[in-house]
Each structure stands twice: as structure tokens, then as C-alpha cells.
């Protein structure tokens, strides 16, 4: 029997890479999408293929470019001639007030976080329907209770939450669609980095009083993808209880 296949966006590092490893360990073949991290994607693909031959591949695509989004979907479906899971993990996150936001910010954030998942599913639908597949969207606890100075990011994730529920209704019973909302797992990097004082303030409001780890998210994704045949239209918060104190 052929191995099930998952396309995971933003899977060259951090949560996406760990998700690919966890699904691969459960017998899935994985299509690792990346935009700029070619070396990390290649290293991960090599590692997984050493563990099981011809079980991982990578595809480069800019999720704000519609031609590349369509090509990503088609190539992912064609590589092993099937697709069973779509994990919309890739995300653009950086602060920008309304006053300081421009159209480029709108296109970058909304394009990667909301538009790309929509059109990826559109072009993966035939294969997912044929295989009674599943979609997992990475949402955010800030989709419901916004983070200061991130209006575009919060709106994009709120939109993705709405798509999750809409798709679950529209594409049942062939396809299940669920979401995972991480809390403090890995702190943002680069321009989106959070001051250590603010990090501690977040932990002070987290009932479990610590950050999570990538396995918490990867495990939740694997559960919804593999072990929850009667679950659809749900968004699971994996946040140490942080959403109770927002």
C-alpha cells in the first residue's frame, strides 16, 4: 500500500520541520515547501530519505506569487501521484501599526497567511477528495484576542480560522479540515523578535508557566491528521492555557 503524502508549507525549519519529521516517523511521505532556506530544506530531505528511501522531497515557492502557489500545489500532487494531507504552516509575522502599514505589508502578510492557503487548497482539492484527505491550518491564539500593533497579522489568522470552519462544512464528508493555534512555543526571530521582559510577561500569564516545544504542535497536527477521523471544523489551542488569561 502506498504511503500517504503530506504537503507542509514552511517546513524547512522550526515547527514545520518538526511536523515533517513526526509525520515521516508515522509512515508518511512529505513534501517540504520552502521559500529561501534551500540548505535547511535539502538537509532535512536528505535526513529523511536516509531513514526511508524516496520518502521526502522539497519544493521552492514564494507564497505571495500566485503562479508559484499553483505550481507548488500541482507539483506536490504529482510527485507521488497522490496527496492525503495539506498542512498550511508557513506564516509571515512582524509588527506594523495601521498608520505605518502599506500595501506591500498587506500583500506580504495577507498573501502568505491567507491567500496562499486558500489557493493551495483550491488546487489540491481533487487529490484530497480522492483520498479522503485532511487539511490542518496553523492559526494563532491572537486570531481571537489581538496582539498590539499586529492588525494585519491578526486579521490574516482570523481569516484563516474562518476558512477552516467554512472548508470543514463545504468539503465534508470527503475532506476533514481543522486548525491548531499555538501559544508560546518558539519565540519569533529577526525583526519580529520579542523583548525578554515581554517574553516573561507572557509566561506569567500562562497557567503552565513555561513555553511549549515543537513536539507539542507537531503532535497536535499528527493527531488531527492521523488519529481524529470524526473531528472536523475544530481549532485546537496548544498554548499552555495562555488563552485563558488574555
From TrEMBL:
Class of enzymatic activity (EC top level): oxidoreductase
The GO molecular function terms of this record are: pteridine reductase activity
The record's keywords, sorted A to Z, are: Oxidoreductase
Q: In which domain of life is the source organism classified?
A: Bacteria
Q: Indicate whether Oxidoreductase appears among the record's keywords.
A: yes
Q: What is its EC number?
A: 1.5.1.33
Q: Does the keyword Disulfide bond apply?
A: no
What's the family?
Answer: Belongs to the short-chain dehydrogenases/reductases (SDR) family.
Name of this protein: Pteridine reductase
Q: Which organism is it from?
A: Marinobacter shengliensis
